[in-house]
């Protein structure tokens, strides 16, 4: 399986541990998955690093929403990179855009310089870019190691045509890593049709809460982000293993 690598989008330390058990190459540790992922806590990063032998990347994203960041948010991201480095993360996952939907060269360069020596992934801010090919060249010139993208579609399977073109345009200069909706049922198809070698997925399953008393009148999350507060979504080692088995079929 050396030709293919699975990165698991881990929403907790528990998911990190399950990803490792299942044979993942790397985890991307995030908080606030319903908002697309934000920077995890100090405790999450520290304990994940303590428990993992596999690669640990940390998303650096101070809030949900768009990728147009203020000077204050930039300072927060620089501090978060500093912490991720101190805690032994292998890489960071970043992405800043201009108001016009282009890669913000200045802000991204500042973050990359702060993360010097660490692996750099440009995240799905790429899918909000105006011109994917121009943006790819800018990201390559910044020195990023990979781009996480769904091919500018809601799900990677829908984005196969663009993903294939991006892999071709990248020509080995940078890794194109399909993500969003990747699973055991479609990963072999995406691999065959795009030529991609790294894949990003969550491989989560729902675990019911052990709470017995449940107040039906109160919710913590408000109305904007709707989640089931009496269940946790946790990566399953078995799902990761099954996905890897499906990828093996591509090598036959």
Protein topology:
Blueprint: E1 5-10, H1 13-22, E2 26-29, H2 42-51, E3 55-59, H3 71-86, E4 91-94, H4 105-114, E5 119-122, H5 132-142, E6 146-149, H6 160-170, E7 175-178, H7 187-194, E8 198-201, E9 204-208, E10 231-235, H8 237-251
Helix pairs in contact: 1-8, 3-4, 7-8
How does this structure look, described?
The structure is a single chain. This protein is α/β, with parallel strands linked by helices and 252 residues long. The protein has a single domain (5-251), classed as TIM Barrel, CATH 3.20.20. Helix content is 36%, strand content 18%. The chain has 8 helices and 10 strands. It has helices spanning 13-22, 42-51, 71-86, 105-114, 132-142, 160-170, 187-194, 237-251; strands at residues 5-10, 26-29, 55-59, 91-94, 119-122, 146-149, 175-178, 198-201, 204-208, 231-235. The strands form 2 sheets. The protein has an 8-stranded parallel beta sheet with strand order 7-6-5-4-3-2-1-8, covered by helices on one side. Strands 9-10 form a two-stranded antiparallel ribbon. α1 runs parallel beside α8, α3 runs parallel beside α4 (105-114) and α7 runs parallel beside α8. The longest helix has 16 residues, at 71-86. The radius of gyration is 18 Å and the shape is globular. The chain starts with a strand and ends with a helix. The relative contact order is 0.16. The model has no long low-confidence stretch (mean pLDDT 95).
């Amino acid at each position: 399986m050396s030709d293919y690598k699975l990165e698991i989008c881990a929403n907790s330390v528990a998911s990190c541990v399950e990803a490792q058990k299942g044979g993942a190459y790397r985890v991307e540790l995030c908080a606030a998955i319903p908002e697309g992922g934000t920077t995890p806590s100090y405790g999450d990063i520290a304990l994940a690093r303590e428990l993992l032998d596999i690669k640990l990347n940390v998303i650096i994203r101070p809030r949900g929403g768009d990728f147009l960041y203020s000077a204050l948010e930039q300072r927060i991201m620089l501090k978060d990179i500093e912490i991720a480095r101190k805690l032994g993360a292998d890489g960071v996952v970043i992405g800043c855009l201009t108001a016009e939907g282009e890669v913000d060269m200045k802000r991204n360069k500042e973050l990359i310089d702060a993360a010097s020596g660490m692996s750099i992934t440009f995240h799905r801010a790429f899918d909000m870019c105006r011109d994917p090919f121009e943006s790819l060249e800018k990201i390559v010139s910044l020195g990023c190691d990979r781009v996480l993208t769904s091919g500018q579609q809601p799900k990677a399977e829908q984005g196969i045509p663009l993903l294939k073109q991006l892999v071709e345009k990248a020509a080995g200069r940078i890794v194109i890593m399909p993500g969003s909706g990747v699973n055991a049922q479609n990963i072999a198809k995406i691999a065959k049709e795009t030529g991609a070698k790294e894949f990003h997925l969550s491989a989560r399953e729902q675990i019911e809460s052990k709470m017995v008393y449940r107040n039906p009148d109160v919710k913590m999350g408000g109305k904007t982000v709707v989640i089931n507060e009496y269940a946790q979504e946790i990566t399953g080692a078995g799902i990761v293993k099954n996905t890897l088995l499906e990828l093996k079929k591509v090598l036959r």
